[in-house]
Design goal:
The complex is a heterodimer. Chain A is mainly α. Chain A is built from 26 helices and no strands. In chain A, 83% of the residues lie in helices and 0% in strands. Chain B contains 18 helices and 13 strands. Classes of the chains: A mainly alpha, B alpha/beta. Chains A and B meet through helix 23 and helix 24 of A and helix 6 and helix 8 of B. The complex binds adenosine-5'-triphosphate and magnesium ion. Adenosine-5'-triphosphate binds next to strand 2 and helix 5 of chain B.
């Protein structure tokens, strides 16, 4: 990050050399730093004053605790929302309970068959049966009820907003920055305000999930509606279609593919929240994973984790196939299907009332949870020396020295370095923002934790890219690499971050290193994909023209493919960095410390003030990292062009 | 045919032949080579073959020769296999069967290094959609071929500037491709191909994306290059007028096969089949055929030795102008004044009508 200032080109005249030097922010910042260091060499590193944000927030929290009982905001808005959500979940859970496992299998199977087709129904039934066999049926049903509620609310909220934004550019422009910001905020940060407003429990967890999971469906619905071809709209209007008719006959059908992707992403994000939401009192599989991770009970975490993935597969497959690619004529119309599904419910209930329904068969006989424990031990134990060596090497060789170096510097040196970089690659205005943001983190008294997180992010991001870029390159250049890799990456990309924590914790225990390793695995797929698709996406006629001139493979890569794929690859760098940040923060669950650790502590202890401070620090760090990595690409692009121009 | 045989043929004909393509096949799809090897499948028409085997024949048993300094035009309807054919020549597409000799190189037998060498020094391509590198300036685009050959910067820029001047883009040498018009981009494409100083230029519909006026300009450019630099060209087009204007010889392609190869006059006066006839029907013959194309040897001695002389490159339009007020036959002479033959009024009129001469 701290690149040396570029040596000024052999200066023509003394005066112009001086003015160029003055214009170079690196030089200015460097000189300022030296001056400051000289001034402050004696001064204390600690700030004389700290921002008492936590105290203010705690005061607000106290006020809320005392007044929520009779304040109209709670009486008329928040309590009803919370009660409503709680009611929906409770009802769903109760119905699932009444159906029992035979009833649920039957009803879900028939439903999946009718909205999708038989193969999907088979997958759905198998996923549910898996929950039973893993011995997590009850928790699974609870999570299913929560997910149905959260996803349902997200879609009920997100699709209309998306349609509105797609039709009105002003609305789209207004929500864009909100969505952009939401995308870089790690999931933890949403939890705290909800905890304050709703207290601990399922509703807070579900509402946090709704907020976290809504942006993708809004974004993709907007996109889908915006991309409806003008001729199609014109044709509709010329036939006298009303606004609503236009929507249902032209806009929605065209946007359906995009909306489907949005719904899918929303479901995946909701499932990613399951574990995190359990920190503020959501029960079910998420809580099981959390307990398992925190007590190093890998068998328990694995069973529940697989359960979450099974629910993900169930929801994913059914919703994905529920949208017909082309309308296939069916013997049974939608009304008939609805009737059929409705008719299976009493049958299911009757099945649920039978004595078989109280016990899931085979669970005792198979006892998957114990088997997983045994299997994990069998794999982990022999690998122990290797994992320990890796872990020690990373800790002693990289993490500790780097962290020590960063912490040895006073905060303002780092603030100045960040500001200089921000000035150079983004803008002077953003440099100011960076200084304020860095200063705020210091003022909040979170400097050491923030640096801890930052160093982990830097290490994980560098390692991720060091692994992903060559792999992406190999996948771009060789179909033999690409073909087996693609399904693996597809699957990996749909798994939420905690899925990677479970095996890594089994192998490496808890701490910062497992956090970094799980993060690398989690963040690699998009970087590999973007690199590969960037290179493969280079216009074929340009590649052909180069080949016709007799380039070697390496020359083609160096002179054509890499330069033209650079924007896509740099987008991958940006995305990777943001995923790394999100995942490193989540690794606070397994003792990775830093801001993530603080978040977990604050949430579990109900330390609202601390939680808000930490949330603010994470958001500031996220914005700075996001803008820097985004603009790094743009800046370097500008620079090469400029160099070419002068060269 | 063994490579030794080929080699001997090459040395014998290398004097005049720049490109020799024999029995070339390109079949797309699974197990394509089986189609060429099997006499029964080989004989099937395109659609039947696709039905039977799932393969698509793009080039079918094509043979032709191009002489040094000749412009050889290949034309045909969309999908007739022109692009595939021309891409097979430097093996941008791997041919399924056949033999290709480019300036003494047996292209299909060449290893990777020799093939690169052929692409770098022997032939260059110009593409319909330009294929310019958007991240490089005009000069760096033109110098690209030399750069990958490892030529140092000063030498390759000097060479690039020469060809840029040749295509009259000197003022735009430091512009980026997206700052140029379509015609200018294609001139860059041409300059890039010329920078390597290849013996053979392969041009795949280079002017299809250009408007008619610029296209006429560019065609003049091509003719000038041939005249001044003596380049051999294989020029693909689907525009018959362009073909007749540029081509020393024109090959007509249909469903992957060459149905006729000949000069403009041959195509117009004696089309091989209805496909070619359809192609040539709407061509204004008066603007394409020249006195040289119409000249016939003296017949019954009716033509007086003192008949008016006319250059062999004079267009039929002017010949008709002459017959409007004088029905005596004309004597056609070449640029050295030697008599090539005579044109009479009946021949001129039936040529305009597109009928065989009486
Ligand atoms: N990569 C490919 N795979 C399968 N079939 C192909 C491929 N490339 C071309 N073809 C087929 O080969 C035939 C000839 O295509 P080609 O592009 O050579 O035609 P063309 O004469 O250049 O047409 P146009 O004038 O439209 O450029 C077509 O039937 C096409 O469908
Ligand atoms: Mg073509």
């Amino acid at each position: 990050m701290t690149a040396a200032p570029p040596a000024p080109e052999s200066a023509g005249s003394g005066r112009s050399a001086v003015t160029t030097a003055l214009r170079d922010p690196w030089l200015v910042v460097g000189v300022a730093l030296l001056a400051l260091a000289a001034l402050a060499s004696g001064a204390a590193r600690e700030l004389p004053w700290q921002l008492p944000l936590a105290r203010w927030v705690d005061d607000v929290d106290q006020w809320i605790i005392i007044n929520r009982g009779d304040h109209p905001l709670w009486q008329h808005v928040l309590e009803p929302i919370s009660d409503g959500v709680a009611l929906i979940v409770a009802e769903l859970d109760a119905w699932l309970g009444l159906l029992g496992w035979p009833g649920v299998l039957l009803v879900v199977g028939v439903l999946a068959w009718r909205v999708a087709h038989l193969r999907v129904a088979a997958v759905a039934v198998a996923a549910l049966a898996g929950l039973g066999l893993l011995g997590v049926w009850d928790e699974g049903m609870r999570t299913l009820a929560q997910m149905l509620t959260a996803v349902g609310l997200s879609l009920a909220l997100g699709v209309p907003i998306g349609i509105l934004a797609g039709r009105r550019p002003a609305v789209a422009a207004a929500i864009r920055p909100v969505l952009d910001t939401m995308q870089i905020i790690p999931a933890y940060v949403y939890l705290l305000p909800l905890l304050v407003l709703f207290r601990i429990g399922d509703p807070a967890g579900i509402l946090a999930t709704v907020i976290y999971a809504t942006p993708p469906v809004v974004r993709l619905t907007t996109l889908g509606i915006q991309r409806v071809p003008e001729p199609a709209l014109e044709a509709g209007r010329s036939l006298g279609a009303s606004g609503r008719q236009l929507l249902s006959s032209v806009e929605l059908p065209h946007a359906l593919r995009s909306i489907r992707v949005g719904i899918n992403q929303t479901i995946m994000m909701a499932l990613a929240m399951v574990v995190i939401a359990s920190l503020i009192g959501a029960t079910g599989l998420g809580l099981e994973v959390l307990r398992g991770l925190q007590t190093l009970d890998v068998g328990r975490a694995t069973g529940a984790g697989i359960g979450i993935v099974l629910i993900a597969v169930l929801l994913d497959r059914v919703t994905w196939s529920a949208f017909p690619r082309r309308t296939v004529p069916r013997r049974l119309g939608p009304a008939g299907s609805a009737l059929l599904v409705a008719a299976t419910i009493p049958v299911g209930l009757a099945l649920g009332a039978t004595p078989v329904a109280t016990e899931v068969p085979l669970v005792g006989a198979l006892d998957l949870a114990t088997r997983i424990d045994v299997a994990v031990d069998a794999i982990v134990e022999p690998l122990r020396p290797v994992t320990r060596a890796v872990s020690d090497a990373l800790t002693v060789g990289v993490l500790r020295p780097l962290l020590a170096a960063v912490l040895a510097l006073p905060w303002w040196v780092i603030a100045a370095a960040v500001a200089g970089l921000a000035w150079r690659v983004v803008s002077p205005r953003f440099a100011l923002f960076a200084v304020v943001a860095t200063g705020l983190v210091a003022l909040l008294g979170l400097w050491d934790d923030a640096m801890n997180t930052f160093v982990q992010v830097a290490i994980a991001a560098v390692l991720t890219l060091a692994l992903a870029l060559p792999l992406g390159l190999a996948a771009a250049l060789s179909d033999r690499v690409e073909r087996p890799l693609r399904p693996i990456l597809d699957t990996m990309q749909t798994l939420p971050a905690f899925c990677y924590l479970i095996p890594v914790v089994a192998l490496f225990g808890v701490g910062r290193i497992p956090g970094i390793i799980a993060t690398i695995v989690y963040a690699m797929p998009p970087a590999v994909r973007l690199t590969s698709s960037g290179i493969r996406g280079v216009a074929p006629e340009v590649v052909e023209a180069a080949r016709s001139q007799g380039v070697t493979t390496w020359q083609l890569l160096r002179t054509v493919q890499l330069p033209l794929a650079r924007p896509t690859i740099l987008l991958g760098v940006n995305q990777t960095t943001m995923m790394v940040l999100a995942s490193i923060v989540i690794a606070g669950l397994v003792g990775a410390g830093g801001l993530g650790g603080d978040s977990v502590f604050a949430l579990q202890q109900g330390e609202v003030g601390l939680g808000v401070e930490v949330g603010a620090a994470i958001v500031l760090l996220g914005i700075v990292l996001d803008r820097l990595t985004q603009s790094l690409g743009a800046a370097s692009d500008e620079r090469t062009r400029a160099q070419l121009r002068t060269g | 045919m063994s490579s030794a045989q080929i080699a001997s043929q090459v040395s014998a004909s290398a004097e005049q032949t720049a490109l020799d393509c024999r029995g070339l096949w390109k079949v797309f799809g699974p197990r394509a080579d089986r189609v060429v090897a099997d006499p029964e499948l080989r004989a099937l028409p395109k659609d039947a073959l696709r039905e039977r085997t799932g393969t698509v024949v793009a080039v079918r048993d094509v043979s032709f020769r191009v002489h040094h300094g000749e412009i050889f035009v290949v034309m045909g309807l969309s999908g007739s296999g022109k692009s595939t054919l021309v891409r097979c020549l430097p093996r941008l597409i791997e041919p399924t069967a056949g033999a290709i000799e480019l300036a003494g190189h047996d292209v299909l037998a060449a290893g990777p290094a020799e093939l690169r060498d052929v692409r770098r020094r022997v032939c260059s391509m110009v593409f319909q959609h330009f294929g310019l590198l958007p991240n490089r300036r005009v000069r760096d685009n033109v110098a690209y071929g030399l750069e990958i050959q490892g030529v140092d910067r000063r030498t390759r820029y000097a060479r690039a500037d020469e060809v840029i001047e040749l295509v009259e883009l000197t003022d735009f040498a430091t512009a980026y491709p997206d700052q140029l018009s379509g015609g200018m981009k294609q001139r860059v494409g041409l300059a890039r191909a010329l920078a390597n100083d290849p013996q053979v230029l392969l041009l795949d519909e280079p002017f299809s994306a250009l408007d008619p006026l610029i296209r006429a300009d560019m065609q003049d450019e091509v003719l000038r290059l041939q005249r001044e630099l003596g380049k051999t060209m294989v020029f693909i087009t689907h525009d018959l007028r362009e073909a007749l204007r540029l081509g020393d010889r024109v090959a007509v392609m249909r469903d992957g096969e060459l149905v006729q190869v000949g000069t403009a006059a041959e195509l117009l006066s004696s089309p091989a089949d209805d496909y070619v006839r359809d192609f040539t029907r709407d061509v204004p013959r008066a603007l394409v055929l020249t006195a040289g194309d119409l000249a016939r040897p003296a017949g019954d001695g009716g033509q007086a030795a003192g008949a008016e002389a006319i250059g062999d490159d004079v267009l039929l339009r002017e010949v008709l102008g002459h017959f409007a007020h004088d029905d005596r036959a004309l004597r056609v002479v070449d640029d050295r004044g030697a008599t090539l033959g005579w044109v009479d009024r009946a021949t001129a009129l039936s040529a305009v009508a597109g009928e065989p001469a009486p």
